[in-house]
Every structure is written in structure tokens, then in C-alpha cells.
Amino acid sequence: MMMMDVQELLPSTGATDAAAAYHILAGSFRSLSLALLAFSPATKSLSHVKTIPAFGPHQYLALNAGKDVVYTTSWATPRILSSWALERNNGSGVEDVKHMNTVQITATSSYINIPPPYNFVYSAGGPTGEVHTLASDGSFGEKVQEFLFVPADELEKADKSRVALRYGSHGIEFSSTGYAFIPVLGPSTIEMYRRDTTTGRLDHIFSSPSPRGPASHDGPRHVKVHPNGKILYCVTEHTNYLDTYEISDGSLQHISSHSLLPPHLTTNTASSNHTGSSDDDPHLVSDFRGGTLMLTPSSSAYPAPIALFTTTRGATPAQKGWLSVFRLDREGRVISIPPSPPQDQTPLHDTTEDLVAPRLQTPTSSGKANALDVRSKGNDNPGFWILLTDDDRAADEVGAVRVLEWDGWGADSDDAGLRVVAEWPEGFKGQGEGEGSEEEGLVEKEKELGFTGASHAIWLD
Questions:
Q1: Residue 204, Cα to own-chain centre: how many angstroms?
Q2: 32 near 54, Cβ under 8 Å?
């Protein structure tokens, strides 16, 4: 594995779809490095550009608005966040990624966000969250706030490792109306804050409980906010729901809930491999674990999001994960597919509605991954390219990073026309016929790449 000395890094105190390639940066739960990849829309192929020596494992990556700096979380010790400069070829495609700086934080983080006006960077994970200024070059500046999800007098003894991400804070998102939202798995709440764009500070104003009550052990994991600032979406890890909320003045009001799983699967039946009560471990409540969510980005064809993608992961390699696509109306509410009659755009309020979303079963359980990133095909093309990561051991050989294609609504199929068009790595076949030749070849390939599996991957162009 490639790595850097983390301690030495701490401070002493848009192309078109005809483009040659779109570049991708991927992290891994099991490698210390980052992987720079290139996707060709013309040939629908995914290739490895280079491996970036780093100090992961990296759970999450975030790109700034200028698309010239990437920020990463890490499971390293000491606990850190890092910034990376993207070096582009004549201002276009990314040809290299260079480390800028690293800052130490109190607890392992699982999420980073840089909201407008892009002068502060926010992170959250486990018992804490932090706010840093941004230096003029886009690297991390000084810490201006630390906010807590445990009582202040318990912070010293609180678990600050990646284990705390299973029950502490897990993400942070912002609305265009000045609010911040942080899902917290353990108490099954979404914490709401008011943001001061001048100082960067967050002030807590509201705690939204699960719509199914604290006994549900829902475990809200990730949230997204519609660009209009009026609707919030939340994926629950333990019970596999998409919950939607109306953002009102200083509070959240639940609108609807929808299963992340197809009708023939249930979210509350554990297999023989998962005996135990949710009081002991909420992860035992289901054979599936809700993953993440992503809105379709704005394009000339569709200025407002037309869909919300969600994922859920298999709890073990025996269960494959699922990708779902929820249709949205112009205001951001979930609507039926297809609307019937066509003019009927009535938002859904049925918490048992399972036929709202087309589904695509993923090739593996996806391990701890099944993370998403979505980009428009560009110009007036109504389609989208979707990144999907895979941490299952089976993906070490084929498909740690996948590119999916979606043409938008109108496809007459159960999966709405979703399809995998490229995978990396593409697979390895042993050169010899002897036993173990394929496995040995895979080990050699991993050593050559310096990268195994994938946690999160993002579009850079």
C-alpha cells in the first residue's frame, strides 16, 4: 500500500459529452491511496490514470465549486481532513492530484461540505462536527467552531474513532434558505441549525425525531436538500426508508416515507444470520442497510431535479444491494410513476407505497459502499451518468467503480432504463490453467494499482 506520514502533514500549529474523457477521483475503505480514473463517453470505457499516494482509508470526498480542490476525510490516526489540488491539462482534463494541506480534527469525520458563498468548509462525524475557514488557495484554514452531539462533559471519554460513525453524526447538508441539517444515527434525529454566512458558525435551533418514533431505531444516515430550499430528503440506514420533509421556518414537517427496497423484500425481517434485537444493535433489524442519496443536477434540459437516486447495501455478501429512482415534481415532492392521468402530479403521502420507484439490483452487496455521484450528459441531452462504488470483495476483481447510464423518464421498463456501461477494474483472468492462478494474478494486480475496492467516487469535470 502507498502511504504518507500523516503526522508530518499536520500544520506546526464542464465539458461536453463529446469530450475525450470525464475524470473521476475515488477513495477506498481498504487502501491508503486515491485513484484517478477517466471515463470515455464515446467508447463507454473506464480506465485507470494513476494512483495517488495518500493517507486513507478515505470514506468521503468533496469537490469545491471551482472544481480545482478536493477535500477528503480519513480513518487515519491522528484524525484528519486533507485538501488536494487538481492539476489540469490546459485547463481541462485532470492529469494529476497534489496534496495541499492536512488539519487535525477531534473525531473521525464521515462527510465534508462547502456551501455557498464558499468561504467555509464543514465536516461532521461521530460525536463532533467542525467548521474551518478556507485559505485563498482553497486549502483548509483555521478552525472556527466545533459542535457536539454528546454532552460537553462526556466528550473526553467519547469514542472518536470510525466506530462512532455507526451511531453518531454522519453527514451535513445546507439549504438555500440558510439552514444546515445533520443526521444522527443513534437517537434517530435530524439536527437543524441556522448558519451565519459571515462567521461560518452554526446555531442549533431544532431536533427532528424519526416519523416512526425513537423505538424504530431508524438511523438517519444521509440527507439532501432540494435547490428550492423547501424539501429535505433523508435515507435511514437501519430501516431502509426514504423520508421526505417540508422545511418550514425553523423546523421540519414530515411529508412521506418510501421503501428503499422492492415490494418482495421487507425491511423488518432478519435472516437466520441476523438474530438479535434492535435494542442490542440496530444494524440487526434488517438484511439491508440504507446507503445514500443524490439528486439529479441542474441542466439546460432540466433546470430543477427530476429524480432522486437512493441506494441500500446488503448486510452480508449473501444479499445484493439496490439502487432506486424516485420521481420528483417541480417542487421536489415524490410523485407516482408514471402519473396517471398524465396531468396528475399529486405528491405521495402513503408511507407503504412500494411501487413509486424503479429498482436496479447491484451486482454485489456493495459492502460498506454503494455511494453515488451524478452528472448531466451536458448541453440539451436529458440523460445522466451515475457513479456507483463497490466495497464487496467480489468487486476487487470487477467493478469497484461503475458508471451507469440513465436516459431520464420515459423508459418502459422496471429499472427505468438504468444500465451499467463501464466498470473498473475490468477483471483479471489467470495466465495459467493451474489452481490459484487467477487469485494470484488478482493479488499482483492489486499491488500494481495500489488500490483495492472503492468507498466514494466523484466526478471532477
A1: 24
A2: yes
Residue 416 has pLDDT above 90, yes or no: no
Question: Mind listing the pLDDT tens digit for each residue in 430-446?
Answer: 444 445 555 555 556 66
CA distances from 76 to 107, 115, 145, 453 (A): 11, 26, 22, 17
pLDDT score of 300 = 81
pLDDT band at 395 (very low <50, low <70, confident <90, very high): very high
Q: Is the dihedral of CA 374, 407, 292, 283 positive or negative?
A: negative
Please say if the pLDDT value at position 270 is more than 80.
Answer: no
More confident residue, 319 or 434: 319
Residue with cell 472503492: 454
Q: Do residues 321 and 370 make contact, with C-beta atoms less than 8 angstroms apart?
A: yes
Helix (H, G, I), strand (E, B) or coil at 393: helix
Cell of 67: 472544481
**How much is the pTM?**
0.90
Strands (E), 249-346: 251-259, 288-295, 307-314, 322-327
Per residue in 80-97, is it b (16+ CB within 10 Å) or e — as a string? bbbbbbbebeeeebbeeb
Cα distance between residue 209 and residue 448, in whole Å:
48
Q: How many C-beta atoms lie closer than 10 Å to residue 157's C-beta? A: 8
Q: Residue 322: which residues within 8 A CB-CB, separation 6 or more?
A: 260, 261, 262, 288, 311, 312, 359, 360, 361, 362
Cα–Cα distance for residue pair 88/193, rounded to 1 Å: 37
Q: Are strands 120-125 and 61-63 parallel, antiparallel or unpaired?
A: unpaired
pLDDT value, residue 144: 98
Confidence of residue 449 (pLDDT cuts 50, 70, 90): confident
CB atoms closer than 10 angstroms to residue 452: 22
